[in-house]
Amino acid sequence: MQYQAPYDHRGGSYMGNANWGGYPYGAMMHPAPEPVPYIEHQQAVTVKNDVNLKKETLKLAADASNPGKFSVNFTFDANVAGRMTVMFFAKEGEDCKLTPMKENMQPSVTVPFEQGTGQKFQQPPGSGISFFMFEESELLNVGEAGIYPLAVKAEAFPANSNDGSQNTQITLAVFEKENEEYHVRVVKQILWVNGMRYELQEIYGIRNSVNNNSVGTSDAGKDCVICLTEPQDTTVLPCRHMCMCNSCAKVLRCQTNRCPICRQSIERLLEIKVNNSTNE
């Protein structure tokens, strides 16, 4: 059956909203393409960290000698001696300053440590937290007003410094409740070096680029996953996989919005040029 589309006398053409063969004209058009992720360029500098709390090891453990209290345990590495301070309900201020907001109810505790890797930290008996002393809303606070239920401040004392402010790592965590038990989840780690504040973010694969950033070497795991020849220098966000060279990233961003490693949606791409000079 023939169908005559209505004629638009104003423009001298057939109107675009005509129904051809039973299908709306608009349905025949391709959907609008998704926004192309943009590439941000940053210079990465290797920063020396004298003490590092391994955030995946941060846990709560029942204090056997003080029923009802729970102590903080974790593993850490230290290139030099220093001190570890555990605070509850702490607020981060300027210049690496942490202020405990409930010191009268839950005092902070500071413990010195020596140089060494794989050290086990356990909060002294009796100094842990009793969850019955606080409202559940306080314990499950996720960082409102800059206050975190748990903070660990690791200060390093290099031989050429009289204080630990030159190299300090702060780990901020929140409590989560599951099956009527409280657990710890790290939400942020901050590094202060020579008065500069760095917020630590894991980038998967950057270690290969830092250790092997010269073109032409054949170290496994450092090459772009697409061309397999150029070094990796571009990170996918938010999944943080450094897996491509910048040339392949420019092509990929126009073809797909999925990470080639985990297939998560790409919001943006971060090209990182690694400078192996170390800030000390």
From TrEMBL:
CDD domains: mRING-HC-C3HC5_MGRN1-like (cd16789). One of its GO terms (molecular function) is ubiquitin protein ligase activity. Gene3D superfamilies: Zinc/RING finger domain, C3HC4 (zinc finger). It is an enzyme of class 2 (transferase). InterPro entries: LOG2-like_mRING_C3HC5, MGRN1/RNF157-like, MGRN1/RNF157-like_N, Znf_RING, Znf_RING/FYVE/PHD. The keyword Metal-binding applies. Pathway: Protein modification; protein ubiquitination. Its EC number is 2.3.2.27. It comes from the Eukaryota. Belongs to the RING-type zinc finger family. LOG2 subfamily. This is RING-type E3 ubiquitin transferase. The lineage of its organism: Eukaryota, Viridiplantae, Streptophyta, Embryophyta, Tracheophyta.
